[in-house]
Hints:
six-stranded mixed beta sheet; alpha+beta
Amino acid sequence: xxxxxxxxxxxxxxxxxxxxxxxxxxxxxxxxxxxxxxxxxxxxxxxxxxxxxxxxxxxxxxxxxxxxxxxxxxxxxxxxxxxxxxxxxxxxxxxxxxxxxxxxxxxxxxxxxxxxxxxxxxxxxxxxxxxxxxxxxxxxxxxxxxxxxxxxxxxxxxxxxxxxxxxxxxxxxxxxxxxxxxxxxxxxxxxxxxxxxxxxxxxxxxxxxx
Length: 210
């Protein structure tokens, strides 16, 4: 069992095939679980993150994956071996937060002291399309692009008098990250299945137990 070489997710044919086959269904279930009156809530992000966490534990073993990260860590979501990882999931070309913050002042403080410190595992959902969808962007790649663009072009800077609830990467920064020669990627065919899934069943089953 590997101790945490994240590159394996992208170069091991067996695990790549498993990801390609299972991820669309799992993300579809996440959308069903987080839907209210036909609309998908922000809860879907947390569910997607747990799905990816489950993948990492499946591949690298529970001993080698630390999901118990304090909420005081602004960027790190999971540690795999010694590598700190930020998991980001979006639909299509949605905006990508570098960090969530509570107010505009916190956003400014984050930007002032920012230095890329952890790898990013980005998952883009493209329903009805087959596209490169999973990307491993190393901290080194982020540092290179941050130095190239500078702070003002690396982030969408918060507007005065607004509360953006976080700091977003700029479109240019994301494009350079995704197309960097060292960024690993997996193509996914995002096909929705006809799933009959009862979001209450597991809870009803527990209540039905004697």
